[in-house]
What we know:
Layout: H1 2-92, H2 94-112, H3 114-152, H4 156-169, H5 181-186, H6 189-202, H7 208-225, E1 230-232, H8 234-238, E2 247-250, E3 257-263, E4 270-271, H9 273-290, E5 297-303, E6 306-307, H10 309-318, E7 320-323, E8 334-339, E9 342-346, E10 361-363, H11 366-371, E11 375-376
Parallel strand pairs: 3-5, 4-6, 5-7, 9-11
Antiparallel strand pairs: 1-2, 2-3, 8-9, 8-10
Amino acid sequence: MGALIFIVIVAILFGILYISSLKDKVRRGEKAEQDSRKYYNETRRLVDELATARSTHLKTMKLLKQETSEIIFKIKHRCEVLEHALEERALSEPWLTSYITQLKIAEDEKSLEKKHGYQTIKSLEKRFREKYKPSVQENISLKAYLAEYESLFPTLPDHIEKVKGLEINYQEDGGRSWLSNEEFSSLSITDRNQLILDRYHNGKNKSKWQIGRDYELYIGHIFKRKGYTKIIQYGIEKKLEDLGIDIIATNPKTGKTAYVQCKYWSKYKMIRENTVTQLYAGSLIHMLKNNEPFALAEFYICTSTIASDLAKECAKILNVRINENIPIGIYPSIKCNNGERGKIYHLPIDQMYDRIHSVEHVVSTCVEAESKGYRRAFRWRG
């Protein structure tokens, strides 16, 4: 009996110990679960922070990439501008062409033998600097004066070209120079004149005045196709006194009048804000002088290049529309005039072309002009 009681007591003690161990395991399990949940939350927070940091980093890298691309583009554009300017300068200054050639040779030598090439370049620079130092200094002084004049008179370059155009207008045209002796002797007068016209339009030896004049005529043709029937080539007629207006076009359907400035520039030049303000101010002066309503006025700048951001901002404020990247195209360029000497047609190279404003027809081919009863102007070489 005593043994049974002992066994029961021992069993109870083991049960108590077992239950205590279970409770201890439960407590350890709960603590482990709390620790796991804590570690999980901490890990999740770290993951979220890393994701946010990664997103911020990607955005920063994207902005840096974009800024770098813009900087590279500007540098490349600047290099193209400088290279283009250097090429043009080299054409007018043969010594610079010689220097560039020898410099390229020296650069090739430098790639083969660094030390020798470096010494060659330095010796070239020293020799050319000593030889042409006086002329370079004089050139720099003249350019400084010219830059100062252009800063005081921003439209000076345009006036210089228009003065050249005035000189060209009073010269006999070079029609004969566009043909070979064989072509001149074998072709009919009509075919001869048409070949001169075709070569003029496709040729690359036009003066800057002729290029600008042709661009204005082409833009005028575009406005005519858009419904502007009354086209006045104001810049060609007024030349130095055009107030910055090249074309005045009236649309009979809307009653509106477009004041247009044309700039056929190379891609290395850019339309600045002074061009916008010049057109706007010149148009206002013209309207005041001629009692024209401002409410029906439209302002356009048509250019073969692009405009600066400041120019676009000024244009937006003044309601001036800038049409960029417009190349010159084919347009009817033969003027047919019925004057005192009869029915005569004029090619763009003819002496009186720019002074003929009263035009009955504008056609594209000599055959078309002659079919209407017009003949070529007599004052031409050929």
